[in-house]
Amino acid sequence: MNSKVQVLTVAGNDCDGSAGMPADLHAFFISGVYGMGILTAAVAGNSYEISDQVLMPTEFIDHQFAALKKDFKIAATKTGMLGTSAVIKCFHRNFAPESFGKLVVDPVIITKHGNFLLDNEAYDDFVKLIIPMADVITPNAFEAQTLSGVEIESRESMMTSAKRLQELGAKNVIVKGKHENPTQEKVEDLVLKADGSYQWLSMPYVSTERLNGTGDVFSAVITAEIAKGNDLFTAAEIAKNVVYDSISKPIIVGHRHGPINLWNAHSK
C-alpha cells in the first residue's frame, strides 16, 4: 500500500495560477505530499491586476469540510484567503485538529501597500477566532505590524511583534522580514517557538517583480513539512530555501508581477 501524507489548503483560487490555492497545491506537490483544497473564493486576475472576485457560500464551504472529513486522514491544514466574517466563522466551526491536523495560518489581511483585505468586523473575528487556533502563524512584516501594533524596523521589534502574536493565542510565530528596499543585502525571518526558543533565517535579497505566491508557497511548504513530521525550525528552513530558489531564477510568465519559479526549487 502506497500511503501518502495528506494536507489541506483553505483558500481562494487565483485564475492565473500564481497565488492562492494553485500556489499552495504546487508547493504541496514539490514537497512530496498529497494536497487537497477547500475553496473560499475565486479571483479574476492576471500579472497586471485583480479585476473581480466571487465568494463561496458558507453552506458550500461547510459541505467541502464535511466531504473531506468523511474520507481522508489530513495531517496538517493551512489557511489563505478567508475574506469575510461569515467565512471566518464558518472555518472556526468546521476546523477540528483531530480531523484536519495541525493548523498553519497565513494571515491574508493586508497588502504590502497597506490596503486592507478584511473589513473591521472580519478583522476582529480573525484576531479573536483564528489566531488562537494557529499552531503556526506566518505573517509578513506588514501583517505582523498590523496584528501586533508593533512597528517593525529591527530584529528587536520583530521579536516584540512575534511575542505579541503569541499573547493573542498563536503557539508558534514566523515573522517574515521586509523585502522592499533594493539596497538591502538580505532578508531575515524570525521563527519563535511556543517554548521561547527562536531562530533567524537569512537569505540574500533578490530584486525581481516576479514574486506572486511567495507567501503562499512559504506557508504551504511549512504545512507540508510539519505534516511529514519535521520540527518547525527544519520546516521553516526548508520553506525559506524553496522560496529563495524560486525567486532567484525567474520564469517569464505574464508581463508584470509574475509567478515564482517552483521548477527551480523542485530540481534541487
From TrEMBL:
InterPro entries: HMP/HMP-P_kinase_dom, PM/HMP-P_kinase-1, Ribokinase-like. It catalyses: 4-amino-5-hydroxymethyl-2-methylpyrimidine + ATP = 4-amino-2-methyl-5-(phosphooxymethyl)pyrimidine + ADP + H(+); 4-amino-2-methyl-5-(phosphooxymethyl)pyrimidine + ATP = 4-amino-2-methyl-5-(diphosphooxymethyl)pyrimidine + ADP. Belongs to the ThiD family. Residues 14-261 form the Pyridoxamine kinase/Phosphomethylpyrimidine kinase domain. This is Hydroxymethylpyrimidine/phosphomethylpyrimidine kinase. Pfam families: Phos_pyr_kin (PF08543). The keyword Transferase applies. Keywords: Kinase, Thiamine biosynthesis, Transferase. One of its GO terms (molecular function) is phosphomethylpyrimidine kinase activity.
